[in-house]
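Entry for magnesium ion complex. Fields follow.
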Amino acid sequence: MPLDAHLAPYAAQGATSRGRHHAEEGSTTRGEFQRDRDRVIHCNAFRRLEYKTQVFVNHEGDLFRTRLTHSIEVAQLARSIARHLRLNEDLVEAISLAHDLGHTPFGHAGQDALNECMREYGGFEHNLQSLRVVDVLEERYGAFDGLNLTFETREGILKHCAEDIALTLGDVGERFLDHTQPSLEAQLANLADEIAYNNHDVDDGLRSGLITLDQLNEVPLFRRYSDEAQRLYPAASERRRINETVRRMINALVLDLIAQSQANIAQAAPASIADVRRAPPLIAYSETARVESLVLKRFLRDHLYQHYQVQRMSAKGRRIIRELFESFMEDARLLPPQYQAKAAADRARAVADYISGMTDRYAMREHRRLFTVEDI
Ligand code: MG
C-alpha cells in the first residue's frame, strides 16, 4: 500500500511500519493497520470483552458498559480526534479495540488478586497481558502463535511497563529504557480511554444509584454542564438531562485535547514519526482540563469505586480468583487439557493465562464447578 497523502507527516503510516515479527505478504485491498484491526475484531479475546466488566459485574444490569462497549467508545473517540489531527485512524482504532484484551474478570479487583497470586512467579499486569494475548495466546494461524500485529499496534497496546520487564520485551520494550515516546496514535488512544471511562462511569454510576446528582454537582466539570442542561431543558426528564450533561463533558474534553495537542504539535514541529518519538508527549489536555479531569477521577474513586456495594462485589471477585488460582496450582489436572500441556512448562503462568482469559460469568461458573458438591 502506498503512503496515505491525507495524513500528517508525523502520523504513523502502514507503508513505513516497522513491520511484523513474522514476515507476511501485504494485502492488495487493506492497509497494514486495517489488517491489525480486523485481526483484533476476529480474535477470541475480543469476543470475551462482552462479558467482562470494569466497575459493574456483568449480571448487574444490561445497560451498564462492558469492556466491549467501552472499547468501542474508546475507538470512536480516538478515531474522531485522529481524523481531525490527520493521524492514522486505522491504527488508533486497532490500538483502542485491543487495549483491554488482557483484562481479568472482575475489573481491577481481579487484576489485583491475580497479581498478588502471581507475586512469586513474575506478577500479573493486564496491560502486559494484552500484549501477551496478541503476541502469544491467540491461536489462529498455522505458521505462528498470536496475531502477528505490526510493531505500531503492539507499542500502542503496551501503555506502560517496568524497566526490568521492558528488558525482556525486545522492540516494544525499548522506549521504556531510552525514555522516548510512542506514536501520536498510541498517545491518543491512551487519553481517549481516559475520556471514555471517566464519562461512562459517571453515567453508569448515576444509573446504578450508587452516586447521586447532588454529589456529582460538587465536581466543577460536571456542575458546569449540568447547569447548562438544566437551563436549556428545564422540563426534560432527569435521564435526558444527564445525557445532555455527559455529552457536553465529553465534547469539552475532546475539544480541549484537540486544541492543546495542535498547539503542542505546532511548537514541537515534528517532521516525522521519528521526531514524535524524541519529543515530549504531544497529545495532552490543557492544564485546566487536566486538573478538572483529575478532580472527576478522584470523585469516582472515592464515591463509586470505593462504594461499599462495589467493594462487596470486588471482594467476591478477589476471592473467586484466589481460590481458582490455588486450586489449579495445587492440582494441574483440574485445568482443561490445552492448559495442562502449558502448565507442564510453567504452571503459574498457564494458570494466570487461563484465569485472566475468563469472563466474569465463566469465572463464577468455574468456581461453582470446583467448589460445590451438587451437580451443575
Ligand atoms: Mg480501557
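NOTE: Residues 29-310 form a domain with the Hypothetical protein af1432 fold (CATH 1.10.3210.10).
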